[in-house]
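User: Predict the structure for this protein chain, please.
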Amino acid sequence: MSEFHDQHQLNDEKQSISNDQPSQVIDNQIHSNTEVNQEDKKTKPNAWMIWLSGITGGLTVAIIGFLLLFTGLIPLNITEQSEDLVSQEATSQNVIQTSTGDDGVSSEVLSNVAGAVVGIANVQSLDLWSDNAESGSGSGVVYKIEDDRAYIVTNHHVIDGANEIEVILSDDERVPAELHGSDELTDLAVLSIDAEHVDTVATFGTSSDLVVGETAIAIGNPLGTDFAGTVTKGIISGLDRSLDVDLNNDGTADWTVDVIQTDAAINPGNSGGALVNGAGEVIGINSMKIALSTVEGIGFAIPIDEAQPVIEQLETNGSITRPFMGISAIDFSSVPQQHIQQTLNLDPSEIESGIVIAEVHPGSAADQAGLDVYDVVTAIDGEAIDDMMDLRQYLYSETEVGDTITITYYRNGVAEETTVTLQGE
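Assistant: Here is the predicted structure, written as structure tokens:
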């Protein structure tokens, strides 16, 4: 009974609370509405005042601004000044775009030099039954126009073995070229074409005053005509570099060339192209690079000061006239030990270097001087001759045709001397 009574009492309390809630909610809503109405009455006058003050402020600014403009205190050419500023910025950007960098080499200068660089195609017959076909290509530099002919310098190895030579112009037109002369030792050749095909001629500079670190630009046709007129920029990395060259591929150096070293990219097809300084002058003829997977950025060019005399001779004479003794010889170091003692009658501990004469050309300077087969030449004019390369270097660099030189040699183990008056080769 007590539990039922307690439950009944609890229900009565809930019902009483429930009956009281509607009245309370209504009172709250009436009170809230009253407050909102009171707030609306307060805010309406404030909005009107804000609107009125905004209008007043705007009119004030407009009047002051008109007065300032009318009196000239604010200039009316702001737009014109802005346009001038934009124009100056645009002009400045154009100047930067026409320069290769802070060295001041303009694109106009490079364009002029690039116009004088052409492609060279080496056309050969593969066999008796085949038509002539291009077997290789390189680059060349147009260096002068004379008597309706445009003259071009390139590398000897670019045109070596060609049955025909074609010059490839900037528009891919191919014109036949005439070979005036070629020199294997200096790796230079001179061609010419009809001058009507040429508009631009390169200017030769000088390689004598080059400085390591100055700008160097290589122009040519790397990897063929698809990349014709490619310009790569670097610096002079080294001067008076000497490289041994094996001309007959026998593993022995036949000649030493003096070259300019650069890190401007020189790739197959660049050979014969121009190495240019910051003034757009040709300072070298691109010749070779070190082609090793472990080596990057080492290319070489023939200095233009050394190339020019050769170019002039090739253009005029078709070949280079050099002092000539009239012998064929081998390096003493290649002679087997038994022949040093038995054939040459020399003591190996006494003679360690020199050249051994293998043939004397009849009627040559050496023949007239009395030199013979198996004579071992060890010195010229007191300068030691260790091998054939030393002999060439001395003859070609230190002597001229008509000079008389003193030869020190061994015959049958006895040291002798004779004089040789050099002939032209």
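The chain has eight helices and 21 strands.
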